[in-house]
Amino acid sequence: MGAKLRVTQTRSTISHIARNRATIEALGLHRIGDTVVVADNPATRGMVRQVRFLVSVEEIPDTEEKA
């Protein structure tokens, strides 16, 4: 498995364009303070980048040991 991102909504989507609201919803966020863990891939990185002013992001490193 790869690394993951912990995404937390920090600001409201009120008065933002519909595309930003849809991106927040697609990430699985519903209200301020909601946190989701999503896969770290180019698609989710792009989504987070589009709404970077509404969310905070924390990288969760891959802790799985390779034997």
General description of the model:
The chain is α+β, with helices and mostly antiparallel strands and 67 residues long. The chain has one domain: Ribosomal Protein L30, Chain: A (2-Layer Sandwich). Helices cover 27% and strands 25% of the residues. The protein has two helices and three strands, in the order βαβαβ. The chain is globular.
Features:
27% helix, 67 residues, 2 helices, globular, 25% strand, alpha+beta, Ribosomal Protein L30, Chain: A, 3-stranded antiparallel β-sheet, 3 strands
The amount of helix comes to: 25-40%
What separation lies between the terminal Cα atoms?
14 Å
How many structural domains are formed by the residues?
Answer: 1
**Number of separate strands:** 3
> Approximately how much beta-strand content do the residues carry?
25-35%
Radius of gyration: 13 Å
N-to-C series of helices and strands: EHEHE
Structural class: alpha+beta
- Order of strands, widest sheet: 2-1-3
| CATH homologous superfamily heading | Ribosomal protein L30/L7
Q: Given the structure, what is the number of helices?
A: 2
Q: What coarse outline follows from CA principal-axis ratios?
A: globular
Q: Identify the CATH class.
A: Alpha Beta
Uncertain segments are none
Q: How does the major sheet shape up?
A: 3 strands, antiparallel
Any guess at the CATH architecture?
2-Layer Sandwich
In round numbers, the mean pLDDT is 92
CATH topology: Ribosomal Protein L30, Chain: A
